[in-house]
Amino acid sequence: MRDVAIIGIGCTNFGEMWERSFRDLFFEAGLNALEDAGAKGEDVDALYVGNMSAGKFIDQEHIGALIADYAGLAGSLHVPSTRVEAACASGGLALREGVLAVASGLHDVVIAAGVEKMTDVETGVTIDALASAADREWEGFMGATFPGLYAMIARLHMHRYGTTREQLAMVAVKNHHNATMNSKAQYEREITIEDVMNSPLIADPLRVYDCSPITDGAAAVVLAPVELARKLNNTPIYVRASAQASDTITLHDRRDITTLDATVYAAQRAYKMADISPKDIDVAEVHDCFTIAEICAIEDLGFVQKGNGGPATEEGMTALDGDIPINPSGGLKACGHPVGATGIKQAVEIVQQLRGEAGGRQVSGAKIGLAHNVGGTGGTAVVHVLSVNR
Amino acid sequence: MAVPRLWRHIPTRYNLIGTECQTCGGLYFPPRTTCPTCRRDGRIIERKFKGTGEVVTYTTIYSASAAFHRQTPYVLAIVKLDEGPLLTGQIVCDPDEAKIGMKVRPVFRKLGEDGPSGIIYYGTKFAPLTEASQ
Ligand SMILES: [Zn+2]
Fold first, then answer.
1. B71 contacts chain A (CB < 8 A)
2. A251: nearest CB among B78, B90, B100
């Protein structure tokens, strides 16, 4: 297998963008990534696109061809284009497919992208589309919503480990703070613990400000084998590990309801592949679709012991200047969560951090970063380790 | 939603019919065609569950999809059946009444509806198990 590098990144603004279509969003992210890489359309050997639910959100399937067409890569160049779906982990999985294609030697220059256009339908439709990340027959038909499932994780985590309602709120407060330094973020504003605690209940104990928002957005990266990356004369960021794991689709069938074993296994495989331990990670983007999800993530990725996610957050360990800064972009919570794009946006953020280009939210001296993307309540997890050094 | 999708699961949803693997003794709800432990060595038979169990965790849903909107707020829980398997279902009780560890029994109820004039579908919910109901 060949070593793979990320040589270009692109990302749209995240938010409710009523004036912009699915096609506009993807095109902007892809073009920016190619320009950043110093590559042209003719150089592209393949496209992998993460997208959860265009069928429900914009009534459109066959996304691979659509995107290749509107990127100008289909009509004359006939570049192969593949849509990848794993609910909210679609982006991370598209990145992994791209990495595997380059590592195998099959393709040289590959675009891995993610896109989701969520605001073209009413909120009820969006809630239902997101619920399809869980088991429709045995969770959805019983009345489970996506926030409801995470609320049950939160309830048990609080009961078992003494995690407090305030500690959950602190995740949102921190991520909103980080997002004030990210011009692409959906919410570039501070919130307080009181704002979270006083926001309307969605699924007790989770409130509006515990939940990631509904977002339009796209992100893209350009991948190349290391030798070619060096010839293109930029600052390649090396993909040191790409790992993935599955678990039961239903929350109730898990070994432990407060642990995402898919994250545990994907992380262990990634650390082994990169030959590092969790202590070596300088910065991480983790899948905080809800505040409780970030607390579980930092535990399951091995940054803190199981049950210590709440106190670690309260003590500032995950802040920009903490031991392990988590979600400098603002995370899904404040940067926004266009589901299929999220996993790619996480990689874009880590690349910016490792290049030292993250501005006010720069984690000083970051050399090794991790991106963690989850599908559903943990049926899929994808972990990538990126590094300045090969 | 098409009728067969609901009709197909009536025995399971109405009567809590799952499966048992005779090779390893594993119990499964909903039914599985393959034992996840024994895979092709498993011998699967039908198994009815009593429906009594205990609340492992729960939430009160305030914001639901269209099919459940008219029922909000409602209590949703993960219930561990006395026989062992866990499942997700609603608890027919006041939100303040729900507790981790609470004993429950099955009740037959309307689950959801496919819009105001669409299909109404039924199945098992749970109710607190009181002295009187035992
Ligand atoms: Zn068996």
1. yes
2. B78
- Kindly state the tokens that stand for A204: 């007790």
Please report which residue ranges of B16-120 form alpha helices under DSSP H.
none
- How many angstroms does the Cα of residue B32 sit away from the middle of ligand 1? 11
pLDDT digits (tens, 9 = 90+) for A162-189: 999 999 999 999 999 999 999 999 999 9
Residues 6+ apart with CB under 8 A from A192: A173
Structure tokens at B43: 């011998």
ipTM entry: 0.95
CATH number of A4-122+215-237: 3.40.47.10
Residues 6+ away with beta carbon under 8 Å from A339: A52, A53, A87, A88, A90, A91, A116, A118, A130
- Nearest chain B residue to A139 by CA: give it: B88
Parse chain A into domains and list their residue ranges: 4-122+215-237, 134-207+240-387
Range with lowest mean pLDDT among A214-228, A231-245, A256-270, A372-386: A231-245
Interchain pair A152, B76: CB under 8 A: yes
Average pLDDT in chain B: 90
Q: Closest partner residue to A145 among B58, B63, B86, by Cβ?
A: B63
Q: Please identify which residue in the block is written with the tokens 């262990």.
A: A268
pLDDT, tens digit (0-9, with 9 covering 90-100), for A97-121: 999 999 999 999 999 999 999 999 9
Beta strand segments in A205-341, E: 206-207, 217-225, 237-246, 283-285
Q: For the full predicted model, state whether its pTM sits above 0.90.
A: yes
* Domain spanning A134-207+240-387, CATH architecture: 3-Layer(aba) Sandwich (3.40)
